[in-house]
Amino acid sequence: MLTQRNEDIRKGSYQEPILSRLQAMKTAMTKRSLSINGHKTSVSLEAPFWDILCDIARSRKITMTGLITEVHGARDNGNLSSALRLFVLQACKERTAQPNGGSP
Q1: Mean pLDDT of all residues in the chain?
Q2: Could you list the residue range(s) of the whole structural domain that residue 69 is in?
Q3: Angle, vertex CA 80, rays to CA 101 and CA 38, nearest 5
Q4: For the chain, how many structural domains are there in total?
């Protein structure tokens, strides 16, 4: 006999408890070095943020450094890593706000 959890999994309606999902989201920081306007710097972000930044740069047909330079130039204060996370968050929000969910 199936347990309720197994039955929910079979139906596709099972949701992991929030703690399990948060633990699965843990990811190592990745540090990348780059030069912005001739100034060498490094940025540490989690892998999912790097992946989305790469997708955004590719869709805009610019380099990752070019995209990061744009974000750097547009930020008011704070560190670059935080600005990049907020940029990715905003891009994701805009994508999901589109009628087709950002799909082509």
Answers
A1: 83
A2: 28-97
A3: 115
A4: 1
